[in-house]
Amino acid sequence: MGASQFIFIFLSTLTLAAALGVIISKKPLNSILWMMVVCFTLTGHFILMNAQFMAIVNLIVFAGAIPALFIIVVVFINFKKLSRSANPIYLKVAGVLSALVLMILLITAVAGADNSKTLLRKGTGVGLTENLGKLMFHKYVIPFEIISLVFLSAVIGVIIISRKDSLRN
Amino acid sequence: MEIQWYLYLALALFCIGVAGVLTRRNVLIVLMSIELMLNSATLLLVAFSKMHMTEINAFGPEVAGGAQVFVLFIIMVTAAELSVGLAIIVMFYRSTKSVDINFLNRLKN
After folding, report:
1. How many CB pairs under 8 A join A and B?
2. Which residues of B touch A150 (CB under 8 A)?
3. Phi/psi of residue B100, nearest 5 degrees
4. Rounded CA gap, B62 and B2, in Å?
């Protein structure tokens, strides 16, 4: 077993354990911290695949900006005054069972695919910032501008939704 | 490294997200589970972009790099979606004093 496979197995176990921690932990703040662990390990996976630009963007957005947003909301909400509400046990069992059935279905689909043993090529330089920048600002300029408009509309929408007086209307 | 291990990892991550959406009632944790599913999709796109560089004639470097540009767009859309979702949660908490997802039907009016 090579070094990259060892790192892959280590990162994968960490990813899955942290993902389980997200959905199991009682307090929302613990879930946010587990979510940050998931994002860090995914950054490790991206670096392992030599996609360095994606790794840094993932680190900045998913492990930096979005947990900050979640933490602001958690601070805003007073969880002590909330009534403890959880799904009844049969609903939980049904949810876990249906997720397991979905996983078995997808795993059989993947295991039956004929090119599932294709090796990932190393040293292609596809994920380097220079190549991605050239691609983004030549071929994908118009989607890039459109996505900035989407982002702007989302910002305006958030401001309009969360105004104080929007409840009264 | 073969592509199937990344496929299995992304599948497991996606199904953990599905289980979180189905079992939890806190809206914040449901949003985080959706974020888990999106993360598995981005992981899979990057893995496929590395895989499609192996067959030289099938997909060139431009197509393979396009997958990663697409991942960048997905990340931006996720950030926009999560900010709008969190704003809706804050408004929901202000009107009902609860973050239970079963009470979301109180948002009408």
Report:
1. 240
2. 76-77, 80
3. -80, 135
4. 22
Nearest to B109 by CA among B98, B90, B96: B96
SS3 label, residue A27: coil
CB A138 within 8 A of CB B20: no
Predicted ipTM of the assembly: 0.88
pLDDT digits (tens, 9 = 90+) for B33-72: 999 999 999 999 998 888 776 555 455 666 677 888 889 9
pTM reported for the whole predicted model: 0.89
Instruction: Report the chain A residue with the minimal C-alpha distance to residue B93.
Output: A77
Q: Are B43 and B9 in contact (CB under 8 A)?
A: yes
Place of tokens 């790192």: A7
Closest CA to A77 of B28, B35, B23: B28
User: Residue A81 corresponds to which amino acid?
Assistant: K
Q: Closest to A135 (Cβ–Cβ): which among B69, B73, B82?
A: B69
Query: Helices in chain A by DSSP H: which ranges?
Result: 3-24, 28-48, 52-60, 66-76, 89-111, 129-138, 141-161
Question: How far, CA to CA in Å, does A72 sit from each of A97, A141, B20?
Answer: 33, 34, 22
Write the pLDDT tens digit of every residue in A95-129: 999 999 999 999 998 888 877 777 777 666 777 88
